[in-house]
Amino acid sequence: MSNPFETLKSEMDELVVGHDDVKTALLLGVVAREHIYIQGPPGTAKTMLSEIVSKSAELDFFFYQMHRDTRLSELVGDLVISREDTKDGEIIRQNILKGGILTSDICLLDDISRAPGESLNVLLRILNERKYGEENIPLLTAIATSNPTADEYYNEPLDPANLDRFVIQVNSNGISYGKQWEDVKKVIGLYATKNGAVNFVAKVGKKALDDSYESLQNVVIPVEVQEGLVSFITWLVEDQRLNESNSVISDRTFLVKSLKLIKASAVIDNRNEANLSDLKVLKFLLPFRVPEEILEAAEQKLESLENQKKKTKK
């Protein structure tokens, strides 16, 4: 059986050079149906990659640029006020013509940290519950982006509790500042012959995502992978001394959602059983939950867990 994610990954690689972590995060997000937070400066292909995924999977896409005066109605649809005369007097009703995040499969909420608290709180509740009032909404994945929390961007970080609603987290850096000179050459070569517009994208279809989500439930996580996960969490808490005061190591994310991402990694690789290589996706739980100095060490730890099995086989 062909793997739709090879097609999707090829499309992203064809149209966007580099940014491999963002590409992987988007694939994990649409397979596991988890929300994604991407922090990075303007011009790092965050929006373009999100559009490629939505077009290829033929998903209804909603884009919104958040701002200090964002109103909830701009995100969920138009409010309609109606008046009705009754024998008991006039009754005023408020209804909504659904739109925005209430009717989309995938949405991109740019500069989410700029949204005012009142709108942001309701928005995050809708994203978390995937419901508006008592009605379910079709939303599969929300992608929230933000500029770095540096002075030149006049940007404030999301509250840790709000940030934790986005299971998958990525720090997207520009390839120039990252000194990825081979990728720089590829970008220049690409735009020297194309205008960069996402005109045609190979279709994998929404059914492929629905089928993948169904197969996610049947992925087996063997004992060695479970033990690897426990070993990694133990290392974070006991060896790196992470606690409630310096990190967001929540049970919901690290004991429940992490398993879902491990399964999604196996599905993307067209497997029905996880292995130790899938533990590498745990790095997407860390960027804004743990201190920066822990990140590099954590990637090395995850790599050592994978290599441990390889040495055992030898």
Shape descriptor reads globular
Q: Mean pLDDT, nearest integer?
A: 83
In percent, how much strand structure appears in the residues?
Answer: 15-25%
Contiguous uncertain segments of 5+ residues: none
Could you spell the SSE succession in H and E letters?
HHEHEHEEEHEEEHEHHHHH
Strand order of the largest sheet: 2-5-8-1-9
Secondary structure layout:
Elements: H1 4-15, H2 20-32, E1 36-39, H3 46-56, E2 61-65, H4 72-76, E3 77-86, E4 89-98, E5 106-110, H5 117-129, E6 131-132, E7 135-136, E8 141-146, H6 160-163, E9 168-171, H7 181-193, H8 206-216, H9 223-239, H10 251-268, H11 292-313
Walk me through the structure.
This protein is α/β, with parallel strands linked by helices and 314 residues long. It has two domains: 169 residues, P-loop containing nucleotide triphosphate hydrolases (Rossmann fold); 97 residues, Helicase, Ruva Protein, domain 3 (Orthogonal Bundle), CATH 1.10.8. It contains eleven helices and nine strands. The strands form three sheets. Strands 2-5-8-1-9 form a five-stranded parallel beta sheet, with helices on one face. A two-stranded antiparallel sheet has the order 3-4. A hairpin with a 2-residue loop joins strand 3 and strand 4. Helix 2 packs across helix 3 and helix 2 crosses helix 10. It is globular and about 80 Å long. The model has no long low-confidence stretch (mean pLDDT 83).
